[in-house]
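Forum: Protein Structure Q&A
Topic: Joint prediction for protein chains with partners

I've read a bunch of threads here and the consensus seems to be that you should model interacting components together rather than docking separate models afterwards. I'd like to see that in practice. Below is the full input, 846 residues plus whatever partners are listed. Could one of the regulars post the assembled result?
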Amino acid sequence: MSAAVVTEQDSPGEVDVVDVRDRADVRRQVKLVVVFAIVAALLLWFALDINDPTVKYITGERVTADDRGTELNGLNLVWGCLGISVIALLLAAVNRIPRGVLGTVISILVGIAFFVGFIVWSYADQTTLVIANPLPGTVKLATPLVFGALAGCLCERAGVINIAIEGQFLTGAFFASVFSSMFYSAEMGLVGGILAGVAIASLLAVFAMRYHVNQVVLGVVLIALATGLTSFLLSQIPDDPKIKGYLNEPLILAPMPDANMPILSPVAETLTKIPVLGPTLFNQTLLVYIMYVSVVFVTVLMFQTKWGLRVRSVGEHPKAADTVGIKVNRVRWQAVLLGGVFAGLGGAWFTVGSTGSFDQDASAGNGFIALAAVIMGRWHPVWASLSALFFGFMWTLQSQLAFLGKMPPELLRASPYLATIIAVAGFVGRVRPPAADGEPYTKS
Amino acid sequence: MSTDTTTPEPAKAPEQPKAPAKRPPMAAADWLPSVRTTLAAIALALVIGAVLIAFSNEAVIKSLPYFFSYPWDFFREAGSAVGNSYWALLTGSVGSGHAIGITLVRSAPLICAGLGVTLAFRAGLFNIGAQGQLLLGALAAGYVGFTWHLPPGIHLLVALLAGVAGGALWGAIAGVLKARTGAHEVITTIMLNYLASALLIYCLGKNAFQRPGSDNTQSPPVFDSATFPTVGNLHLGVIVAFLAAGLVWWLLNRSTLGFEMRAVGANPDASRTAGMNVPAVYTTAMVIAGGLAGLAATMGILGHHDSLSPTMAGTIGFDAITVALLGRATPLGTVLAGLLFGALSVGGVAMQASAASTPKELTQVLQALIVLFVAAPALVQGMLRMKDTDSNKTVMAKGWGG
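Posted by a regular:
Agreed with the consensus. Here's the joint model:
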């Protein structure tokens, strides 16, 4: 679409139409055609491979005795998905896929079509298994990633590289567990997580801004420090069940409808009754609700407020910001510490938000995935959160499909990471970080 | 070591075009402050470690409630706990020939993998993928080691090369993706780490990799003909590791390729303008970096008759990053840092076994603190009131783009 059409109208009788297309545009078209063609071909194969098109599905997350699923002819669904991808393929072939939001929507539609077809194909020809709603699990698993991604966006938009998300997760998880156990309250666990996240963030800030330590180095070191400290402290907690109960046996956040919170719980209970989306969005813990609010909060803060403008300006051009009277390092401190709050909440998910007591390496590399989400989302809180959701979806999907036997489980287990590589190499490509990201600023 | 030992980034290439060949002999005063700061950083980390030891020791904690009546008890217990722990750390790692041997063997893979991270770092690439490259190297070296039948010596050499090739292949993927599509190497190497571990587990599930008569996910041990010859508790791999360090030093400081890598690392745009093929340099750097990580894997798998298992690499790949950072991305620094980290991890076990029974996790904390303080010379000098010698040469950090 961006092909420039140059017409020379001023020489009458002789109209030259020169169609100039730059190479990037051609490559984009080729890329889209190839990808859509692959998707269409796979969907066609799915459709032809299905013998017994009847699949059963439920809208809940787990199959219960009184809900054995509704039957559905999956084949029609696959044909429909094939139709969507063929239309997209034709549009791409004649180069009619617009750039910008609409183009992205078309790509996402094709992506969804592929996944729907894939799920139906996976569950077809299986008599007993029921498609469970993967979305509640998606939101659940994506929660820490979204928090981590928000922390990453805040720091890096202000010009401080934050590789240490994993370290913030670890300490957050540990102290959330300790606080929750000590105060006998899961909500206090969140406070503990926040404090720990902010503590690591302030280390990041002090070494990055005061001592000008290379921030990539710093991030790696802080992860090492957090890993060492949490496992050291964990080894200090005695096995004596009486003492351990006060230190590492936290209360776990319950899903909101069961949590008996005043006002909020009844509201959540009502909202949960909405089909499909209800259990996805509202049968969740307090932490997930905080996550929704946080995404909106950070986005508005960053793009609609004066403070957000300052944060972005110190990340892009600190000198210019300084010239107009913005205190560069103060704004950066604020952004990094606020990021610490979210990273700490993300860390709390690993203990009080899901499994309970802290174990060595509880965050299991999720901080790195959150970092990938930040870069995939091009340092934008909403896109980064969507990237995080994509991860959550892939994880949920692979755990649901693992015992179907249609795909080798090892391949399924690797699929989130494979998908990320393909997404980053194929679609995101060269990203442009905030211009001053990683450069300490000294007033001269 | 010249002035650029104070920066993990390469010396700014455009400023010293003929630098590698004709560098003036360095004056002692050039590197002395840097060594002094590093030693001070280690000392500072040990002090903080001492506090942690004291307050994690049972006898010390018991003496706390009556601290104000008998303060001496507290100091005596704390002193003995710290003294015992650090003495065990020291003797356990370098106290005897045997201990030094274990330390060297432990350091070898750290040095190799650290060199890989160092090399990539100098080319402006942040290689988080040493772990994955290591796993692939182990997979390849192990497979050759326990399935092929070759004469001794040749078998070892082939297994060694297979390991290097395996790591190089995994590094190449990230390099090619970076060069061709601009995909950020931090993301791709992280993902490749997970893929490598998935691949390893997949392979271990296959018959070709199964130890006969065992239900564990474990391969048969490597044949004798493919293991490094040993002298006492040392094996030949240690020497290979030091040779690799020499090679990397030569590559970075004396070869054209190394010059190109450092130039691209310092400023890719300027290098492109100067006619260098930046994507090719990225790819080559990642291939060599991966190969070095693969070599690190052979230290483990071919060093002591090991078999492949999902957890065999431990966290060597990640420790390698800290090693490279502590070594300020120079080959010599990486070797020294690798030796230090090897000694700490060996000594940590002795520390846990000592009378003070300080948990060995403490050494992890020490490692991180040392790197942190070394990276912040201004902090160390400020705290110890040292003369402010090179604080204005503090590393100016760089961004994602390298």
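The first strand of chain B starts at residue 230 and ends at 231.
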